[in-house]
Amino acid sequence: MPDTYGNNTMMTTRPANNFIGSRAMPELVYNAPETMQDLMDLISTHGPFAKIVAGCTDFIPSIRTGRWRFDPGLNLIDISKIKALNRIENKEDILKIGAGVTLTQILTSPVVRASCPVLTQAVEQMASLQVRNTATMGGNLCMASPAADTAPPLLVSDAWVLIQDAQGSTSVPVVDFFTGPGQSILTPGQVLTHICIPKIKAKESAGFRKIGTRTAVIISIVSAAVKIRMDGDLCETARIAFGSVAPTPVRVAAAEQFLAGKPLEKRVIEKCAGMAADEISPITDLRASAVYRKDVAETLVKRCIMDCLEALT
Ligand SMILES: Cc1cc2nc3c(=O)[nH]c(=O)nc-3n(C[C@H](O)[C@H](O)[C@H](O)COP(=O)(O)OP(=O)(O)OC[C@H]3O[C@@H](n4cnc5c(N)ncnc54)[C@H](O)[C@@H]3O)c2cc1C
After folding, report:
1. Which of 51, 143, 162, 287 for a ligand 1 pocket mutation test, highest count of atoms within 8 Å of Cβ?
2. Quick check: pTM over 0.85?
3. Backbone dihedral region for residue 11 (phi beyond 0: left; psi -120 to 50: alpha; all else: beta)
4. What's the half-sphere exposure (Cβ side, CA atoms, 13 Å) at 286?
5. Which of 20, 191, 278, 313 has the greatest CB tally within 10 Å of its CB?
6. Which of 281, 313, 120, 151 is nearest to 223 (CA)?
């Protein structure tokens, strides 16, 4: 059954072993399928008593810190050896990114940089080289952290994910994927297989910015992404999304609609940024106060819109 963080795995109250300030890993049964068929066979054999992982950059710290506990004998299903999930496919109108593609693959891909530069921008600001070498975008989404940095770029790009289970594959817009902090629509026996992103077109531009407590290897206090499509001097459509300001990554519809049909001059941008900040209700936590988050959110929207305009000139 789903645990507190929405992961479809068995969680117990087994006392954790402590050593050097962190918990010991439970005994795991490691499975590394190489084909989708083998993956689906393992999922149907072990069902909710298995844990799908990719880079393990969230999985291992979650156990080491005691956030997650599992009974010994947990079946770990590592999808990183499945070639079909390790590709960035350059389709006519979309990029199809496998759930096993690492952040480094995304960052170094000329195809992603050309077709979805806002995603490259976000990944550039994520984690460290070592973490990016194994971490995946699939894992970033499935962890469903409100601070997941790949979420705002995907939200403004109108991206969708493909989810597979024993019944087949379904497609879900990213905007409908997250259901709460650490929770998504994934149910036991389901695996996220691909992320599909419409390519950026002429007269469109998108930008991402994030603020943390320092400039590198840091969880976002606020992240923002904006995408605009221009029609002459007017904004035809806009998408604005935030991370770390709500229980899930979110879009702000009223601020988006406000921009449509307007010239992107200073007073319009300022009004839009204010509306975007009014639409969110962030919390105060160890990293920042709600007031500070709202203030930063407003500033990031302004700067992202300016970045978009600059890129279009
Ligand atoms: C030092 C450090 C810095 C970090 N910095 C950032 C940062 O700047 N920004 C940020 O957003 N994150 C950051 N992270 C968090 C983490 O690296 C990312 O969330 C990463 O993308 C997770 O991917 P993964 O492949 O390692 O996931 P894993 O740890 O393998 O899995 C994470 C969760 O997703 C599930 N899962 C994984 N893949 C699938 C799938 N295909 N289908 C179904 N379920 C799946 C797992 O069961 C697990 O619950 C950081 C982590 C560390 C340790």
Report:
1. 143
2. yes
3. beta
4. 1
5. 191
6. 151
Query: How remote is the CA of residue 258 from the centroid of ligand 1, in Å?
Result: 34
Q: What residue ranges define each of the domains in the chain, with the CATH number in brackets?
A: 18-81 (3.30.43.10), 84-198 (3.30.465.10), 204-312 (3.30.390.50)
Which residue, 148, 121, 124, is CA-closest to 137?
A: 148
The closest alpha carbon to 154, from 191, 190, 184, 189, belongs to 184
Residue found under tokens 């500070």: 292
DSSP 284: P
In whole angstroms, what is the distance from residue 117 CA to residue 99 CA? 19
Tens of pLDDT along 101-154?
999 999 999 999 999 999 999 999 999 999 999 999 999 999 999 999 999 999
Give the closest residue to 305 by CA, choosing from 222, 254, 241. 241
Q: How many CB atoms lie within 10 A of CB 132?
A: 21
Sorting pLDDT into bands at 50, 70 and 90, what band is 203? Answer: very high
Amino acid at 162: L
Edge-to-edge strands, sheet with 74-78: 28-31, 74-78, 50-53
- Which burial class, exposed, middle or buried, applies to 242 when counting CB atoms under 10 A from its CB (0-12, 13-18, 19+)? buried
Encoded tokens for 210: 């994030």
Q: Which atom of ligand 1 is nearest to the CA of 53?
A: 30
